[in-house]
């Protein structure tokens, strides 16, 4: 389980970093230097986790933080913000809104609700498309747990 979480997180972060690098230019972000115009500016990662009361969620956040530290050493991540909302959906919405306002570059959400977070996620996507965030992002990723579970059972 620990290895599969780390692999999934590695793929997600590597994809976002690759997409970010493809969309960057020295003139658009100012992150390039005269000696290395292809150098990318490290990203800020926000993690919004709902319930933290079981071993899987604890392991998930520990793995995210460990992987982020590895990526910090490589210069890919500037910082990571991890917040836990408990079972309070409104608290999670407020935490996500704070991360949007802080202009995180990558927002990972482990939601408390299937539907209650949709408006705040739509707000994040809208702000990204309005140019509030300078760095481009990849397509929004969603895992359909029901479909995934049914295909795994076959």
Would you give an account of this structure?
The protein is of the alpha/beta class and 154 residues long. It has a single domain (2-135), classed as Response regulator (Rossmann fold, 3-Layer(aba) Sandwich), CATH 3.40.50.2300. It is 51% helix and 13% strand. The protein is built from six helices and three strands. The protein has helices at residues 2-23, 26-29, 55-73, 89-101, 118-129, 145-153, and strands at 43-49, 77-84, 106-110. A three-stranded parallel beta sheet has the order 2-1-3, with helices on both faces. Strand 1 (43-49), helix 3 and strand 2 form a beta-alpha-beta unit. Helix 1 (2-23) packs across helix 3 and helix 4 packs parallel to helix 5 (118-129). The longest helix has 22 residues, at 2-23. The protein is flat, with a radius of gyration of 16 Å. Residues 17-34 and 132-143 have low confidence and may be disordered.
Features:
carbohydrate binding; alpha/beta; Rossmann fold
The first-to-last residue Cα distance is 20 Å
Second-tier CATH architecture: 3-Layer(aba) Sandwich
| CATH fold-level label | Rossmann fold
Count up the helices: 6
Counted beta strands: 3
Give, in order, the helices and strands.
HHEHEHEHH
Gross morphology is: flat
Low-confidence segments, given as residue ranges, are 17-34, 132-143
* Count of separate structural domains: 1
CATH superfamily: Response regulator
Structural class, judged by helices and strands?
A: alpha/beta
Helix content: 40-55%
Strand content: 5-15%
Largest sheet: 3 strands, parallel
* Rg measurement, Å: 16 Å
For the record, what CATH class applies?
Answer: Alpha Beta
Average pLDDT value? 74
Family: Belongs to the bacterial solute-binding protein 2 family.
Signal peptide: 1-20
Keywords: Signal
Organism: Cohnella ginsengisoli
